[in-house]
Amino acid sequence: MRYTLPDGSRHHWEARRHRKEAGGRGAHSLTWRIGLLFVIGSACFVAGPIPFYVNLVGTRGAAWTFFIGSIFFTSAAYLSYVQVVREDGHRWFGWTPHLMGFWATLIQLVGTLYFNATTFRSLQDVPPEMVNQVIWRPDAFGSICFLISSAIAFGEAGHRWWSWRPGHLDWHVTALNMWGSVFFGLSAIGAFTEPSGTLRNAVVANVGTSVGAVCFLIAALLTMGEEAPRES
């Protein structure tokens, strides 16, 4: 939104930038904390599929890594949602459907809950015939939620569904999250379990997870810089 004040000064207001810069900067900034939580969660998903790491901690250790990472994802997603609804006067919960950021963060939060479910069930002994139902299905739903959420966030940051704004930090953050969601989606496709008990494409599943998580990790680091700029 562009507007002119009575004194003739012109201002440019953007929803995401205003939201991310609110509340100061540094370790006490909500934006900084959200970014840190996403960094930790993403790092867990980067490490989880790496063969060296799996050999080091074992398959169960890797499964725990994914589950812990999903908890950090959910914590960060919830705080992102809180950051949106607080703008409308709410504190911990709220319904603000008129804001694109509300839908982006709410759908993202739902997606992380699906990842909580799939990673938690991966810690248990699931019968082969139930793997697709209790592990793969929530993984696929979570990936779909991430794709929808990242598309909305990208549209909010760019003010249209497709944009090219490489000079803007929020554009890079949302574009990287979009790519991360695409790779997570590819990972879900590769992770479908065939009747023989093997993954449809283990390489796609593992590489998609790691590459997608790297995109999320870089985006999270950049998010930590979206807080209020330093005063000159």
Care to describe what's here?
With 232 residues, the protein is mainly α. It has one domain (30-223). It has 7 helices and 2 strands; from the N terminus they run E-E-H-H-H-H-H-H-H.
Which helices and strands appear, and what pairs or packs with what?
Layout (H helix, E strand, L loop, with lengths): L1 E3 L5 E3 L2 H7 L8 H18 L3 H35 L14 H22 L9 H28 L10 H22 L11 H22 L9
Antiparallel strand pairs: 1-2
Helix pairs in contact: 2-3, 2-7, 3-4, 4-5, 5-6, 6-7
Low-confidence spans: none
Count the E strands: 2
Q: Strand share of the residues?
A: under 5%
Question: Given the structure, what is the number of helices?
Answer: 7
The radius of gyration over CA amounts to 19 Å
Structural key phrases:
single chain; 232 residues; mainly alpha; two-stranded antiparallel ribbon; 66% helix
Task: Describe the structure concisely for a colleague.
The chain has 232 residues and is an all-alpha fold. The protein has seven helices and two strands, in the order E-E-H-H-H-H-H-H-H. Helix 2 (30-47) runs antiparallel to helix 7 (202-223), helix 3 (51-85) runs antiparallel to helix 4 (100-121) and helix 6 (169-190) runs antiparallel to helix 7.
